[in-house]
Amino acid sequence: MGSYPAAYQPGANAAFAADRDLYRRIGNASPDQRTQVESFIIPPRSGRAWEVPAGSVCRIIAVDGPQVGDLNVWNRHNPRERMWASRTRQLQRAHVSTYDRIWSTLPYLRPLLTITGDSLEGYGPDEHGGRVHDLLGTRCDPYVNRLLTGEDFDFHCHSNITRAVLPYGLTELDVHDVLNVFQCTGLNDEDRYFMKASPAQRGDFLEFFAEVDLLCALSTCPGGDLSIPLWGPDAADPSEVCRPLGIEVYRMDPAVLDGWTPPELAPYRNMHGLALPSSGQSQGDGSWWVRDSPATGAAVEPLDTAATEFHRTLPGYRPTPLQDLPELAEKYGVGRLWAKVESERLGMPSFKMLGASWACCRALADRVGASPSPDELRPRVTGRFTLIAATDGNHGHAVARTARWLGVACRIYLPESVGAARAGAIKEEGADVIVVQGSYDDAIALAATQENDSTLVISDTAWPGYEQVPRTVIDGYATLFGEIEAQLPDGELPDLVIVQVGVGALATAVARWLSRLPGRRPRLLAVEPTDAACLLRSLRAGAPTEAPPPHRSGMDGLNCGNVSPIAWPTLVAGIDAALAVDDATGAAAVAALHSSGVSTAMTGAASIAGLDRLTSDESLDLLRRHLDVSANTRVLVLVTEGLPQGCDKVVR
User: Does the keyword Transferase apply (predicted)?
Assistant: First the structure.
């Protein structure tokens, strides 16, 4: 082989290489620092899929001697993000081993896993130039088999993986180029791909660390150890050299993971020269922003809809109403106005129950290795765990309600601005309430320090090293949009969707929903209080930017100083415009909704407040033209909360 320099070499400031000290510590963890949570055998000529939670280690083992395995990997919550074999070849090498990383597809481009152990690390190049753990080739499949032999065979690796992932809602179209574990390959003198007998022996293994929640699928190749050719003049039946492979999954001691944070999505802004966030037009007083050209939503990852079936099994589930508000449509000069009214959701006066219930059950299920079904979880978790949240009200109330369902303890941190009625409602769920002297962001900072083996933080905003639960909260909101699609009149979609923004979780879910709708994508307007407009400030700056305290708006649930880090990439790609509204406009919106029979307070009415300002403020003509607002525009707003008894305003 030549020594010509590699093409893909990181620059001095690139965050690229694995931290070898960290991954050496993970790979060398002692038995008391890792707890086995799953173990199974994949029989010869078959396949199986399984999950590996972020921060866990998975080991693939040659349990009976040499056997090749074809591995596929996806982000468990977004199958569009999956292993990218060709880019990994370029960034790492064509045959991977310890400290190499498997990278994901565009537009995500981050490590899905890092190899932490390889008993064949020292193998190769052999006398033929062969090396193991191959990214050069791909899986065997029945189509190429028919091409080369004229015969059908249904148990190639492509077919085995296809069958394995069907229970996860994936299909043949999701199966992709593989990592050929234990396979020995190379290029011959004619620059053609060769495969030879695997050098693996009984007990050999490849071990990797999951950087994000993974769905993995492995086929035990029908070629076995590849010592018998599959095609050509010497081809024969290799069934005698086919063997099983073993899988083990381990949860790691948190101390071993000290210094590890889940990798962020690629920081490229996903504009592709179409428009830059910083080029948006904005009013001189900084109260609005609009993109020069409509957002395409092309870089927005989809919602995971698994929560919808979960919610349908919960006691008291029923869709919330989508109300047609013709009087308000006339008042604001638009063609039609629909309001998704979340005044009662699973016994709570807020949509927040959708995200909180799903996130609580998923987090506990991952911790104990169970299904997220409350009935299955309850006997496994009752009395063993504590759930923690920081809140201005409704998210924490929803976490407390879910904790009561499951029989686990709960502790909720509230900023000092939250009233006694809201705190009392949370206490009635059996939760301990801690009042923090400071803002919502101060409460979040304190709650973030509380996680341990028996205490789980359930937050709807993220911070470095804490992303999965907030992502699950966002996915929980998918139920709301499935309901909207079923409730809209046949063939009709909104032209404009208006959503209120706190940390951006709901707006992120809306943007992901809109990105998958057929036809022309509806425009998306974000609305925030004037003194807590963190998304608006960020869009104007082109980067996440704090809205400094104090945050005194009567739209209490939106009094947030920072956009969630996991929301920002979706919002910068998917928001068309942002608008700040004051409390006087918020109060007018409450009154307008009340006149149409919808009871809420300023947080729930913020989307109507945005519509009010958008259609009445003479200085917003440019914004109206960019959003194409006219007398024919069909508008969808989210009324996110009802008005709880004893409270004179709805809070977050």
Answer: no
